[in-house]
Amino acid sequence: MLKQLQQKARKIECLHRDDGPVADMAAPVDPLPRPVATPARTMDVLVRPVSTDAQPDAQQLWDEAFGSAAMPEDPIAAPESKEPDEPRRPVPNETQESVEPDFNELRELLHASLVKEEKSPPPTPTDAFNQRMEIVIRNIKEGKVVIDSGYYTEATMKSELKKDKYQSHIIEYWVDVRTSGSLSRSTKEEFNQFVEIIDSGASLPPPTLGDEALPSYDVEDDDDEDDDQDDGDDDEDNDEKEEKEEAVESALEAHHIEIKNIPQVLSEILKLRIKVDGTLEDLAKKAGKKGDQNRGDKLSKHGDDLMSLHDELAEIKADNSNTATPSDETMKKLKEKLAAVEKLTSRITMEQKKLKRMHLDRSKPKKKPAKSERDKDVRQAAAVAKPEQRQLPWPGLVVSDRLLCSIAAGFVDEVREADPDLAEDLRSAHLLRDLHRQSKTKHESASSKSFAKSGLSCPVEITTVEVGPDETHPVLKIADMLQALASCNKLCLLWGAKSMTSNTDVLPKFWRRWRAHDPQHAVFGHHRNNMAYVLPLQLHGDEGQTLKKSGVLVINWQSPLGFGLSTTEDRPEAMSLNYTGNSYGTRFLYSVCHKKRYSKGKSYILTGIMDRLAEELVDAFYNGVSLQIGGKQVTFYLALLGLKGDWPIQARFGNLSRHFARKGVYEVSEKSGFCHLCRAGEQGYNPNDYGESASWRATYLQTVPWDTEGPLCRVPQSPAKEYMHKFDVFHTVHKGVFAELAGSGIVVITDYGLAGPGDIPAQLDTIHKMAVQHCKETNTPLHMDSLTRHLLSFPGDYAYPVGNWFKGADTTAMCSFLEMFWTQHLASASTRDAYLDGLLECLRAGNLFMRTLYGSGLWLSLDRCKIAAESGLAFLRSYLATSHRAFELQRTRFKLTPKFHALIHVIDGLAIAYNSGRRWTLNPLSEATQMDEDFIGRVSSLTTAVGTRQMHIQTLKKYLTNVWTHVRSK
Q1: DSSP H or E stretch at residue 773
Q2: In what helix (H) or strand (E) does residue 523 lie, and over which residues does it extend?
């Protein structure tokens, strides 16, 4: 049917093509008052629709356009319903292609109707149409707020009348009682389109509703801009007025505050006057003895002037007490008086200090106490440990680069003012000039370059290594550090000697004894004939604490050979442990890493760091490091002995699946248990059994404790690679089993009521006083200043007490005290108590075990090994018996933890060495971490004095300065 209409329209157009073209455009036709609604785009387009939004004249236009003559012979029947058909509204996102055919049909129908009825002049072939569209979107928001206000009543004025929050001199008599309101929002959209068509060739766009941008009217925008500028000028004027009003109000408020504070100033003046009178009285007493009465005249005059100012301020306060706004002259006078009071106060203070220093405090110096022999030893030890004069004056301080440069800049400025020539003649003038310039230019972070240029920093290059995809990290390579030590003839620190040529005596002896300790180590197969040039190496890692109590990982390396221990009583043949001396000179940093860099899914960063370290150790083992010693090129090799550290770091570096954090299991598997050396902890493998028939002995070094090997497993070592992870005596004993022993031993004193009357805190105070007295008598250091439930982790009898003090050395001190206490108590007891006898035996055996280790050298002789093994086994036996008796008494004392099994391995190694008749046995203290903990603390403190953005590289730079200070002084 549509096709028929289109054909008719084309025939009509053909009848009028012979008229020829028209030169001019068709005259514009005025639009109708109201356009005809656009018919719906449906197959019902030929039915005469009744538009619901048309004007009264619209129906007539539709009748004329769609008369009976224009209708086909078989029209589509209209619906029977009398209701008007709702036209289909256009869809906003409908495409252009689906809309244009309907408008073409409409145009042709209108054109055919107009031509047939000949009610208008024939159209020209020139396109001509007028179209006007209007889109109106209204967003309406209506709000209503009602505030009920009123004056305070007489009753409420007495109780609730308040001052303004920001202007204290304003009293509020009018108050808002209640605020209520409502808020409503509505959105209205309208679309009006006016179309008049006078030519069939014209194309019309589809109608839209709220889908496109509103039309732009440049002229109106220009007018709006002008209006905005005018409004802006008005706003600026209003802002200036408001600023002036606020300034006036703030000035008035400041004046009121200054007047209000006068009484406080007067009170301070009177207090200072009393101090002046006291000083004058003391001077009068001194002068009466010596006949000099004129010493305090100046101070007395200052006191009189101060009281005059006091009276003048009091008058200002009295004159303006009832004045809401003081005058400008009054405020000017007040400020002058307050400034005079401040100036006079400082003069009085200075005069008082001078008089006290010159005349009142010149008493005879106190006699120094008598010097004991121990004081003499302490002074000699301090003299040995005192750094040389060429060291930096701040080796023990941790300051930021900014503070350091500012101090140097201040010193340079002061010296230049006093004597410019002297400032340039100083030996450190070049360094001071650099620091001065960096302070002025705010480049303090470059101070490390100045130290290196002046020879005050270790000449080691900071190397950036790849630790992951697009991830790098700064490290100090071991080979570079060895070259730096060799350059200053300090490589001998790595074998505990002062001679660079003594390695030929020390290192072969060490490796001969190590062969009895670990005969399957790879070093004996690869460097059998070159032991004098193989350096033994131990690795250590632990987390320290940096800013905001966050963790920072510190990785270092060291030699087991050193300069001994202060408590060592062994002969020189036993060689020396690496304990004596500053940890900067005995441990050497590899890298630091902030915890946020390798946590939360970034563990590959830490793995990458350890991979690079393992690669360097592998290369140093096979290829060595070429060093310049005594004018000759010498190659030294590195052999890894083991990894030191607490159990968590061992599990992290070694990817251990068997460690202390695992709980007991009931299925036998390679992943179960908590010991990485054996299968202790599984069902049928009692971890607390230390006898020769213990079930875990058959599994010792038989099954690997990981799913995938850690990075350090690539380094040449023993075939049983889990043997590389060493048990740390410090955390196993001082912070572990012996801390449990000390905590329970203290609480047992309170269980038997032997600490006097009172509650538990009072008894713990008594015990602490007795412990302090014992430590003074035995010259044992004790660091804790109190003893509390918290320090024992003992909130009640339902918990196991443990010594949770900060210093591990306090464990040794408390065990010594407890042995003395229980020895004296049981000696005077009338009856025997197996529970207390077992406790005393445990303390005696444990203390003997620790004294033997700390009194020995790096290697235990056969006699010392026997004492250590026997005392250790006695401790294990008595501790288990005492713990069992406490369990029978239903008391939470003497807890058994996984560290007890670790101690079994330590003592079992000594027992096996003694039973095999080994001449020299390695001291377990060589694998302890006391000094390593000190090193971790020192390096961690450096991280708090550098910027957080470049913490790693700046910490390494500061470390190089500090390590060079201590290494060159050794």
Answers
A1: helix 760-778
A2: helix 523-526
